[in-house]
Each structure stands twice: as C-alpha cells, then as structure tokens.
C-alpha cells in the first residue's frame, strides 16, 4: 500500500512546518544567547577523525551506556547465562548485532568457517555433510524475524520484579536474517526414506559443549525455518552462533540452535533436556505443558519506562514501544494511560512484518499527572495480548516461560517510571 | 527566499501529477516511487539554482528545463508496463538434488549421532550401578551439584523435590520432574561435566545415571543400569506432561474485540518493583531491594489519577549509595583491589580466596603469585596443569595475565570453563586483588 504514504508526505511537510514554528516559540523565551550557537565550537573549528581511524565503527562514546547487561544473581555462572538487549534505548525495529541479547548454555565458542560442518542424517535417502561453502551455493532468502527467549518476562510471573524494560523484556532481538530454507537442505538429502512426513520430526543440535538439541515437527521444518549465516547484512556474531545458526520464525529462542552442526530426520521427538526439564510450562496443578513452541502476541512500552524517565516535563510526549507475534503480523496496538480503563489505538511506525518486531507510537500531550502506562497487542489471528490476571487464571504462577502479559509502568508527576502491578 | 514560493509552485504541480498517477492501480506504485525520485532531483536542482543567483533571468528557463525533463521522465515511467509491487519469491527448491555436499561416512555419523530416544534407541552398549557411580559423581559432578545431587549454591539440584510441582515454588529435579530416563543419559553423556563435556565413557555414564536415580530413592545401589533396561525404566513424572493446549485453553477465549473505554471502574497499584536496578557505566547491573511501598500512590479512574502526589522517595536512595561508595577516601592501590574484588565475582562460582579458603570446583587461590602451577593439595587438576606442576612452572603476573585473558589458549586442555577476562583493566585489577591475599 505505497499510496498510503503519498498523502502523508504532504502531511509531513505541513507537520514539520508546525514543528519548526514550535521551536521558534520555545527559543523566543530564552533570556541569553546560547553560547553553543554564538561561540565557535571546537568541533566547528578543529578537524575530526580521519577515515583511516576506524576500520570498523563502534557507537560514539556518548552512547556507551547502551549495552547488553546481565543480572549476576540469576545464574550460577556467566557461562551458562543470559544478558539483555537494551531495548529501552533502541528505536525502530532492527536490533544491532552488537547489543542483541545472548543466551548460551556452555559459553559462546569460536568456530571458524573452515572448521564448520553440517550433517544431515536419520531418515533421509542420503546422509550428507555440508561445508560452509556448500551452504553458500543454495538459493537463499532474506527475512526480518524476532527471536525471543521463552523466559523473556519470566520473572514477572511472581509479580513486578526488576525495574527496567531491558530486564523484563530484553531477551529479544529482531534482525534481518539471510539463509537457506531448511527445506532445501532436507530436499538435498531426500525425504523419500522418511515416508509419510506427517508424523516426522527433525532433531537439530549445536556444536558447542552444551550440544543444545531440539525437536521440530516436520511441518514447521518444511515451512519457514532458515539455516542462516548472516544477520543485518553481516556475518553472525560469535555469540549468536557464528558461522551458522538456525532461525525458527515465531518460535521460542532456544530452538534457534546456534553453531548448528546436525539435523536428524526422525520418527519421534528426542525429548532432550531442553524440551523436558526446561522449556516446559508447569501449570497450577503440577502438570506441565510441553511443546509450547510459539511465542504469542506481546507488546511493551519501551519509552517512557524505568530506564527512560520523562525528562522534559509537561507537553508533547512520544510514547514508543514494540509489539510482536509468533503467529504472524501485528495488526493493532492499543495503549492505556490509566491502567487499562481507557485505551487509545496507537500508530504503527510501519506496517508490521510477519513474526517480526513492529514499532508503535502514541503521541500525546502530557499534562504532568501520574500515568499507568500499558500496551496491548493484537495479531492477524485476532488474538489479544492477555493481562497478568488472565494468564495466572489459566496457568497459575509457576510457568517460568511464555509470559506475554500486559506490562504496567507507573509514571509519577516527575516523569519517573516504575515497574508495577495493578488491580 | 521571497521568490521561492513562485518557483516552487510548478514543482508542487509535478507532485500533484505524481500523486494523481499513484492513485491508479496498486501495481503503479513502483513507478510512482521512481517518479518521486525524479521529482526530488528536480526540486534539488531547482533549490541549488535558487540559492545561486535569484536575479538571473536565465534561471527560470533553466528551471523549466529541469522540470520538463522530470515531467518527461514521469511520462516515460507511466508508459512502461506495470511492475508488480512484490518481486520477492521463496528460494526455489529443485525437484532433484543439486549435488551439493558429500555423503556422510558411517563413522562420522556414529561420532555425532549419539542422541538417545525415550524408548532407549541410540544407547551405546554398557552398564553401571550407583555404587560405582557415587565415586564418579563425587569426583566429576559434586563440586557443583553436591555430594547427594542436592545442588551447591546456585547450581542445579538433581535430586528430591517430589510432590512439590503444584507448590508455590516447585523443585524440578531429575527425580521429581523429568519424564524420561533416556534424557538423563543423553544429557550427561553429551553435555556434562560442565566445562568437560563429552569425556565420559558409556559405562561411567550408566553408573552416574544410576547414582542420580539412587539419590532420588528410585533404585537401590545394586541395581545394574544398562542399555537393555534404561529405555523401559519408568520415571515418576512420566505422565505429568500435556501437549500444548493453548489453542483450546486460551486462544479462542482471548481472541475477542477488546474493551476500549470504561473497562474498569478503578485501578490501584498492588505491587511495586521488588528490585531497583543500577546500570553502572562499566557494564552489568546491580539490583537493590526497592524500599518503596504502594501506600501513598494515587488510584485511577476514567477521570485520571485521584491526586498528584508530592515529590516522593524514588530510586535516588540507590544513587546515593553508589555515590557514597565512590566518595570514600581511598588510595589508588586500595581502589584497584576494590575493583578486583568486583571482577572476582566472575570467579566466585568456582574459586575461594582469603582466610580459610577451600577448594570448590576450582582450587583455592591464596598466595597465588609465586606459587607452583597446579600445586594445591587435594585438588584434582587436568593433565595440562599436572604437567605444568611437574615442570615446576611458577605463577607470576605475566603468566597469570595471559592465562586469565584466554585460559583455554594459554593452558590447552584446562578444565577451567571460563572464557577469559577481556578487559585489560579487569586483569590488572584482579591480580591486585589476588595479591592482597599473598600472606594467606
């Protein structure tokens, strides 16, 4: 729907004229001339860095706080642990690789492309071994997908815990992945030996010491799973599985096996540790759900949020957030400023991609009164993101995983935001 | 600038044409984009000209020229056959194979395909019992999982927890939670011990798995576990799992048009963040209990907040703590030691240092500089450390710096599963910290 953009272009012209006027009005109240304007500044006089100084650029030092952070006491060792994407400080939808969250079970390993091997075996016509160079010769695709750890927001089952959206919702990233559809590799090995594909599985396993392994039903394997070797146009980072990882769109991050080394076609799920002991959801009566792969629709306001207080006082305020669904596209996001009594439909920064982060905005005039900020996502299936109460009613509080509750930030009159739970 | 409106007018006219065209069919938008670019180029050219010399009478004709050429370009684009909005397509899959990759050899498959299925398929031949397993477990696993598989510190608990799954804090262990014994064999054989994965023999693994069952009171210590009976062993929580029933239990009920106004009468805050989180510039985070309570917060109705509270206790308390810590008078050396103490948190899971320090999964680190490598009594070192001890190699600052930067490169084959201290400052600081225990 490109036509939609055309009228808004005009609207933009009009809008920016108004904004410019606003700036003038604001500046008119200044009493003394701004030395940043009236004095010649160093940077306007002395020359800057040369092109030979930064062969590969890092963010400027003033942004050095925008980093992944871990919470030490969550795990016994940082080698089998998690850190969190600074989603509070990012905008748009694409996560830069350098600050995309990490979760590994035996540390991030250094595996050269030359030493990389991928095996396909099991119920295939011809078991195969691919090198990295082989993978580069299959037709490839590009897709933007979110990758969310099933434990994202998991602490919130027990109520408002850590004060920061980076920590409540930061086990997520969204990148443009380049890779070969898994179906192409399975086709190469031949699925004749598997017979009826309906009840078949592929078991995928990583090359690191944890040899993380997961079982994926054949239907998904033949659908949209990618064997990926690039993200955001670059080689994967070590911590995201360099040189090759699996991308399982819309499904929990643990299945996106990093350093993937083996794919086995099987007549049964393996029931590995990561799909029995972990990544199963204990319900109130002590039974547990298994094979809860899909990440349901979810959203959160990233600013204002505890790490992003309102610092400008009353007046125009941009409420910015992220929404996503493992079932497809985000179709609508509503925002409430009074804890869920009244909802306003937010504006999507751009029409949502399927199984990818969508940015939403609510542009308001803040009157300086306290707010209870919430966001509520809807996806193309008509599913509406549930409240904490709805989730607890059906699942109890011991699930650990798959908490896609509506999150609340209490914003006080000074603009400081805090993670809270509401009635 | 006074003349610019006149000059811009014809340009906007062009925009009008472009927009008019774009409203045609969906498939035209691609051309419209190109036309947009042409229009932008025309505008840019015009802007340049305007700023150059306003009085130039040739200017108008030049602008007209540029605009004419833009119009011509747009007309040309309009005349081209329609281009579909989406030219993307899935990567093609061939009917037959592409001839990429090579056939996997049987011994290669045997080396990698070691996963074990619930019915026991995939198990290698072998046998073991809890009696033998106890010693192996004490040697290879207990440092983290405890002598009785009860878990040390934050490391996983492997035994007990029966009848807790419906409690507030369920204790999910091999005994109380795992549905299949195959998973225990599979995981231990492939992924444990942590930092030394893939080093157990099948017999050792059977013995260790038997010991874990024994610790869970599921067998006696004479029970011989083997590839023949493991698949049939029934775990207590075998029937404790249901396949994902969210579609029936949740999706239908939650996929309804949501309420937009007057959805509740009143909303109050029932709980505030348990932890405030400091995010220091050097990275990581520090959690601090939040002293604030829900008392004194406004409630909300459709009219908004019930009142606007006075400035209140906010995370500043925490900032003060941090500030106070910095203000403490301290000489450079003391500060470095302090920084080192912080870095040592990364080692604490495995090492102790200081008065009465004991061996954990790593050796105690007292009086380290000047100490022979691999020499702590009662600690079982890897071969590479034993060799270093035999050669009489001594820890000094240089070797320690190198080791801590990349343990696995400096000591190939070391059991220390730690990826290394990446920051030079961290290395310096930790050595200063460890040196403060030279006398211990």
How would you sum up this structure, described in words?
- Chain A: GO terms for molecular function: heme binding; molybdenum ion binding; molybdopterin cofactor binding; sulfite oxidase activity.
- Chain A: Residues 1-30 form the signal peptide.
- By secondary structure, chain A is α+β, with helices and mostly antiparallel strands.
- Chain A folds into 2 domains: 2-21 and 295-420, Sandwich (Immunoglobulin-like); 102-289, Sulfite Oxidase, Chain A, domain 2 (Alpha-Beta Complex), CATH 3.90.420.10.
- Helix content of chain A is 13%, strand content 30%.
- In chain A, the strands form 6 sheets. Chain A has a 5-stranded mixed beta sheet with strand order 5-4-13-8-9.
- In chain A, strand 4 (117-122) and strand 5 form a beta hairpin.
- The radius of gyration of chain A is 24 Å and the shape is globular.
- In chain A, 54% of the residues are buried.
- By secondary structure, chain B is mainly alpha-helical.
- Among the domains of chain B are: 109-232, Cytochrome Bc1 Complex, Chain D, domain 2; 332-436, Cytochrome Bc1 Complex, Chain D, domain 2, CATH 1.10.760.
- Helix content of chain B is 40%, strand content 6%.
- Chain B has helices at residues 4-22, 29-52, 58-79, 106-112, 130-140, 142-145, 181-191, 202-215, 246-254, 316-327, 332-343, 383-390, 397-405, 407-410, 424-435, and strands at 102-103, 127-128, 225-226, 241-243, 269-272, 275-278, 286-289, 300-301, 304-305.
- In chain B, strand 6 and strand 7 form a beta hairpin.
- In chain B, helix 1 (4-22) runs antiparallel to helix 2 (29-52), helix 7 packs across helix 8 and helix 13 (397-405) crosses helix 15 (424-435).
- The longest helix of chain B has 24 residues, at 29-52.
- The termini of chain B are far apart.
- At the A-B interface, strand 1, strand 4, strand 5, helix 5 and strand 13 of A face helix 1, helix 2, strand 1, helix 4 and helix 7 of B.
- Strand 24 of chain A pairs antiparallel with strand 5 of chain B.
């Amino acid at each position: 729907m490109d036509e939609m953009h055309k009228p808004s272009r005009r609207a933009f012209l009009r809008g920016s004229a108004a904004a410019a006027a606003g700036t003038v009005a604001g500046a008119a109240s200044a009493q003394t001339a701004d030395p940043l304007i009236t004095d010649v500044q160093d940077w306007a006089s002395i020359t800057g860095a040369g092109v030979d100084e930064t062969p590969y650029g890092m963010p400027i030092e003033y942004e050095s706080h925008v980093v992944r952070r871990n919470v030490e006491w969550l795990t016994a060792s940082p080698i089998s642990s998690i850190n969190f994407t600074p989603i509070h400080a990012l905008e748009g939808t694409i996560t830069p690789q350098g600050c995309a969250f990490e979760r590994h079970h035996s540390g991030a390993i250094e595996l050269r492309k030359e030493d990389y091997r991928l095996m396909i075996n099991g119920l295939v016509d011809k078991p195969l071994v691919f090198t990295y160079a082989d993978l580069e010769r299959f037709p490839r695709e590009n897709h933007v997908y979110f990758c969310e750890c099933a434990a994202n927001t998991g602490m919130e089952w027990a109520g408002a815990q850590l004060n920061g959206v980076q920590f409540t919702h930061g086990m997520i990233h969204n990148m443009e992945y380049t890779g070969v559809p898994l179906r192409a590799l399975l086709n190469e090995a031949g699925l004749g030996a598997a017979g009826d594909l309906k009840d078949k599985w592929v078991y995928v396993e990583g090359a690191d010491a944890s040899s993380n392994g997961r079982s994926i039903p054949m239907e998904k394997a033949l659908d949209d799973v990618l064997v990926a070797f690039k993200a955001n146009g670059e080689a994967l980072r070590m911590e995201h599985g360099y040189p090759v990882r699996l991308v399982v769109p819309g499904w929990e991050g643990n299945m996106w096996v990093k350093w993937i080394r083996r794919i086995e076609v099987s007549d049964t799920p393996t029931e590995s540790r990561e799909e029995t002991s972990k990544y199963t959801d204990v319900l109130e009566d002590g039974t547990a759900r298994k094979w809860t792969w899909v990440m349901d629709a979810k959203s959160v306001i990233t600013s204002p949020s505890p790490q992003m207080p309102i610092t400008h006082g009353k007046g125009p305020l941009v409420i910015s957030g992220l929404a996503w669904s493992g079932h497809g596209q985000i179709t609508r996001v509503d925002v409430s400023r009074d804890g869920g009594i009244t909802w306003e439909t937010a504006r999507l920064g751009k029409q949502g991609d399927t199984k990818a982060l969508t940015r939403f905005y609510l542009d308001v005039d803040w009157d300086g009164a306290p707010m209870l900020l919430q966001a509520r996502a809807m996806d193309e299936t008509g599913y509406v993101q549930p409240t904490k109460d709805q989730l607890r009613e059906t699942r109890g509080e011991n699930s650990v995983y798959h908490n896609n509750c509506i999150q609340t930030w209490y914003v006080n009159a000074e603009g400081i935001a805090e993670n809270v739970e509401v009635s | 600038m006074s003349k610019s409106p006149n000059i811009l007018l014809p340009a906007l006219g062009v925009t009008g044409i472009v927009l008019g065209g774009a409203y045609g069919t969906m498939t035209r938008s691609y051309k419209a984009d190109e036309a947009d670019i042409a229009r932008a180029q025309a505008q840019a050219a015009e802007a340049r000209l305007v700023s150059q010399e306003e009085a130039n009478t040739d200017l108008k004709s030049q602008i007209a020229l540029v605009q004419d050429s833009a119009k011509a370009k747009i007309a040309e684009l309009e005349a081209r056959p329609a281009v579909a909005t989406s030219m993307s397509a899935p990567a093609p899959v061939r009917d037959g194979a592409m001839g990429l990759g090579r056939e996997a050899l049987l011994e290669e498959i045997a080396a990698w395909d070691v996963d074990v299925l619930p019915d026991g398929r995939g198990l290698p031949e072998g046998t073991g019992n809890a009696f033998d397993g106890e010693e192996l477990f004490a040697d290879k696993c207990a440092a983290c999982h405890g002598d009785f598989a009860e878990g040390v510190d934050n490391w996983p608990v492997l035994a007990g927890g029966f009848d807790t799954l419906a409690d507030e804090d369920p204790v999910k262990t091999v005994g109380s939670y795992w549905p299949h014994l195959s998973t225990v064999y599979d995981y231990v054989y492939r992924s444990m011990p942590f930092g030394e994965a893939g080093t157990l023999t099948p017999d050792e693994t059977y013995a260790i798995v038997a010991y874990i069952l024994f610790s869970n009171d599921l067998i006696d210590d004479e029970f011989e576990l083997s590839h023949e009976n493991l698949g049939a062993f029934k775990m207590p929580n075998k029937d404790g799992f249901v396949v994902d029933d969210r579609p029936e239990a949740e999706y239908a009920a939650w996929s309804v048009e949501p309420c937009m106004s007057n959805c509740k009468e009143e909303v109050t805050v029932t709980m505030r963040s348990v932890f405030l989180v400091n995010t220091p510039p050097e990275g990581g985070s520090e959690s601090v209990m939040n002293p604030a309570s829900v008392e004194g917060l406004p409630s909300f109705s459709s009219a908004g907040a019930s009142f606007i509270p006075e400035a209140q206790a906010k995370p500043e308390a925490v900032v003060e703590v941090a500030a106070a810590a910095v203000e403490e008078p301290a000489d450079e050396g003391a500060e470095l030691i302090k920084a080192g103490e912080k870095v040592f948190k990364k080692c604490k899971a495995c090492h102790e240092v200081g008065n009465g320090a004991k061996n954990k999964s790593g050796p105690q680190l007292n009086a380290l500089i000047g100490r022979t490598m691999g020499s702590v009594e009662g600690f079982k070192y890897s071969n590479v450390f034993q060799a270093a001890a035999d050669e009489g190699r001594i820890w000094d600052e240089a070797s320690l710096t190198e080791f801590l930067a990349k343990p696995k490169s400096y000591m190939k084959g070391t059991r220390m599963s730690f990826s290394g201290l990446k920051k030079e400052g961290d290395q310096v600081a930790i050595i200063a910290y460890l040196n403060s225990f030279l006398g211990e």
